[in-house]
Design a protein that fits this description.
This protein is α/β, with parallel strands linked by helices and 275 residues long. The protein has 12 helices and 8 strands. Strand 3, helix 1 and strand 4 form a beta-alpha-beta unit.
C-alpha cells in the first residue's frame, strides 16, 4: 500500500503519494489529472518506488496564492518532494504536462535526474503551442461566463466543434474542465499552464545526456504523435515507443504504456545509474 502525505510549499498544501520500494521514480500526472491517472499508466512492480505530487489545484492539493502557475513552479514542487524524502538522484517522468515537468527537471537539474520518461508529450520547446489552444479557450470561457453558458459557448465555438469532430476523446477531456468543483479557480491553472512551456530549447534538449524513453500515440490532437517523435529524435539516444491510441482502445493503451515503462526501467543500464 502507498502512503499519502502533505508537503507545504509557500501557502499551498500538496498531496504526495509514495508507493513501493526500490528504484526511485518521480512520476507526474497531466494537466487536470491526479494520482489516479498516474496509477493507470505506471507499471505495478515490487522493485520500484513511485512518488507522485498532485500539482497545485489538482487532486487533493490546494491552489495557494502564488501566481502565475507555471511548469517551472510545478517542477520545483516535485524537486522539493524529492528533497523531503532525502532523494539525491532519481528517475523522473510523466504524462502530458508531467512529461513537460520531467523535461524541465532533466535540463535544469541534470545532476539529480538519472533518466527521463516522457509519455504523450503535449509540449516540445515552445510556449503556448497550438495544440493547447483548446485548453486556453476553455479557460477563457469559464472565466468569462456562468458555468452552463461557458460550456455551451465552447461546444458551439469553432475550436470546440473542430475538437468534437476530429478528436472526440480529447473533446470529452476538455468538457471535464467545466465539471470540476473548483472550475473557476482551476481555470487560472489551465490558462497559465496552457500558455507556458517546459523552459527547454531544442538545442538544450539536443545536449541532454540522460537516457530517455518517449511514448506517443495517434488519434490525439492535444498530444500529437509528431511531438513525441521530434523529442525522441532530438534527445540523444532516446528510445521511442508508439503505443495503441488511447482514443481507440484505452485498456490496450494503458497496458502498452505500462509495458514500455517497465521494460525501460528494468534495464541494467538504468539501474546502474542510481546506486
Amino acid at each position: 500500500m502507498g502512503e499519502k502525505t502533505t508537503l507545504m510549499r509557500d501557502d499551498a498544501s500538496l498531496a504526495v503519494y509514495d508507493y513501493g520500494e526500490g528504484l526511485p521514480v518521480l512520476f507526474q500526472h497531466g494537466l487536470g489529472g491526479d494520482e489516479a491517472q498516474v496509477a493507470q499508466n505506471f507499471p505495478e512492480t515490487g522493485d520500484m518506488r513511485r512518488i507522485t505530487v498532485e500539482c497545485r489545484g489538482h487532486g487533493a492539493s490546494s491552489l495557494g496564492s502564488t501566481r502565475p502557475f507555471s511548469i517551472a513552479m510545478f517542477a520545483e514542487d516535485v524537486l522539493a518532494a524529492a528533497k523531503d524524502r532525502g532523494l539525491d538522484r532519481f528517475i523522473v517522468g510523466g504524462i502530458s504536462m508531467g512529461a513537460a515537468i520531467a523535461l524541465h527537471l532533466g535540463h535544469h537539474h541534470p545532476e539529480r535526474v538519472a533518466a527521463l520518461v516522457l509519455v504523450r508529450p503535449a509540449w516540445m520547446f515552445d510556449v503556448a503551442p497550438d495544440n493547447m489552444a483548446a485548453a486556453r479557450a476553455v479557460a477563457s470561457s469559464i472565466h468569462s461566463h456562468p458555468p452552463e453558458e461557458a460550456r455551451s459557448l465552447f461546444e458551439r465555438s469553432e475550436i470546440g466543434m473542430q475538437m468534437k469532430a476530429g478528436s472526440p476523446d480529447n473533446f470529452a477531456s476538455l468538457l471535464g474542465y467545466f465539471d470540476r468543483p473548483n472550475g473557476f479557480e482551476f481555470a487560472s491553472v489551465l490558462a497559465d499552464i496552457a500558455s507556458d512551456g517546459p523552459g527547454v530549447s531544442q538545442a538544450a534538449a539536443a545536449a541532454l545526456a540522460i537516457p530517455t524513453l518517449v511514448i506517443g500515440n495517434q488519434q490525439d490532437a492535444i498530444h500529437p504523435l509528431s511531438y513525441a517523435r521530434v523529442l525522441a529524435e532530438t534527445i540523444p539516444d532516446a528510445t521511442f515507443v508508439e503505443v495503441a491510441a488511447k482514443a481507440a482502445d484505452k485498456e490496450r493503451h494503458f497496458a502498452e504504456v505500462q509495458d514500455a515503462i517497465g521494460l525501460f526501467l528494468a534495464s541494467k543500464t538504468i539501474r546502474s545509474l542510481i546506486s
